[in-house]
Amino acid sequence: VPENQPHRTCYHFQPPHNWMNDPNGPMYYKGVYHFFYQHNPFGPTFGKIMVWAHSVSYDLINWIHLKHALEPSEPYDINGCYSGSVTILSEEKPAILYTGNDNNKNQVQNLAMPKNLSDPYLREWVKHSQNPVMVAPSGIEMDNFRDPTTAWKGNDGKWRVIIGAKNGDDGKVILCHSEDFVHWILDPIPFYAIDNYGMCECPDFFPVSICGTNGVDTSVQNSSIRHVLKLSYQNEQQEHYFLGKYQPDQENFMTDTKFTGTSLDLKLDYGAFYASKTFFDYAKKRRILWGWVQESDTTKDDIEKGWAGLQSIPRQVWLDKSGKQLMQWPIEEVEKLRDKQVSILGKKLIGGSTLQVSGITASQVDVEVLFELPELESAEWLDGNEVDPELLCSEEYASKSGTIGPFGLLALASEDLTEKTAIFFRIYRTPNGYKCLMCSDESRSSLRQDLNKRTYATTFDIDPNIKTISLRSLIDRSIIESFGEEGRVCLTNRVYPSLAIDKDAHLYVFNNGTQTVFISKLNAWSMKHAEFGYEEKIENIN
Ligand code: DQQ
């Protein structure tokens, strides 16, 4: 990677160089966190020879890069080792199920096991002699059958796994079961199907506890859990999920809600976040989510930078008390990187005001703000049941005045505010109660014209008696991950400021509503660099 790179992150996971996309097979195993990822070792674009790169960590923040776990080598994966997952089988043996792009460019599922279970880093993986262990069933396109999940075991002792698929424009999720993890039977009835929305990539299927924030292991089935089915819609590049009831005896998942194709559908993150995957961390009894955060600059830039693609900071996920949505929060370990702190307490933010948060390195910061709201009755009226939040945000830039809001943060901002990414709330009164719009607006994030600058937004219902609303943003040079209302809404942005870089980046709090809001408390910390180590053996690739 060339020197002097203002957009390369300092505490998000990145490979030493070149292209990265999907998280693969994350797991905790005997004291070590493993992370595999889709990687092109030969360049900063998606490549012909995709491998499973491999890194290990003791805290999910500081990493050691190892040599690749899987590289194309056999007829069943010679055109790429695509995404998949790890399952820990009986006798604590981990197994990788991954998609091979085979010599006919068909997608098949393959199995790999560690060569030496006593190597704490599980450096070497052996592909199974009976690969491929699954091929596309009839009614599924042979080149659109990929991304097996972590398997779960039923009470009958059989393993189940689901796999993304497509036929024409119709997305499908295929259920497969096996007694020995090698011989698989594919269920002719799709586990999930959605017409006209294209390929369902990278499914994820996991239980969540109905009370508390603890996670549960993937095979757990009892009355105190619900299930989550997550799908990556290839056409939209967005992560949709459904809560519901899994009925193992009928091999059936009954979703609580139907997909509508509108802003009412649930997404893990309303911004740049894709191909995500969870795992159960049995050390800390939590379920952790990783997601790929794509670039939004040009391929030419990626080639100049020598790298492309980030991973989100791992997030803990759990079911909200309402049972109607998931909650997400950056894992607590990221707080170890918090360095110099500044605080603001009880500060009035009158309409039209902007307040700088000074004394921190604003290009790499963790900031948490609690806003105290005025009486909600004064909120603007919003007609119509179905408003498109992104349209609302793009028409009403953060700089335009509202009543209660827009208020929030201006991140990676230049001193004169010509560059800024606004992450903000605005509150509305609707026929069905109060709604909060949360938005992240990249339109002014850089003076550069050749970037894909998006506006991401969603609305959520708020209690009429709500007094405060919180916002946390993890800012790291070209990424901003924001968590509204304690993790109810997540929005991730990739931005490439040209002025607001390094020491010239600033952080502000603003209020452009006519109503005053208060900063009840704000804490911001400069963030230290995460450590990335390399094993010497990794240098074999070029
Ligand atoms: N990327 C992988 C596929 C997956 C897609 C290939 C999602 O397995 O469907 O790198 O980003």
UniProtKB/TrEMBL annotation:
InterPro entries: ConA-like_dom_sf, Fructan_Metab_Enzymes, Glyco_hydro_32, Glyco_hydro_32_AS, Glyco_hydro_32_C, Glyco_hydro_32_N, Glyco_hydro_beta-prop_sf
Keywords attached to this entry: Glycosidase, Hydrolase, Manganese
Span of domain Glycosyl hydrolase family 32 N-terminal: 12-330
Full protein name: Putative glycosidase
Organism name: Lupinus albus (White lupine)
Keyword Manganese applies: yes
PANTHER family on file: BETA-FRUCTOFURANOSIDASE, INSOLUBLE ISOENZYME CWINV1-RELATED
Glycosyl hydrolase family 32 C-terminal domain span: 333-526
UniProt record similarity statement: Belongs to the glycosyl hydrolase 32 family.
Swiss-Prot/TrEMBL GO biological process terms: carbohydrate metabolic process
Gene3D superfamilies the record matches: Exo-inulinase, domain 1 (2.60.120.560), Glycosyl hydrolase domain, family 43 (2.115.10.20)
UniProt-recorded Gene Ontology molecular function terms: hydrolase activity, hydrolyzing O-glycosyl compounds
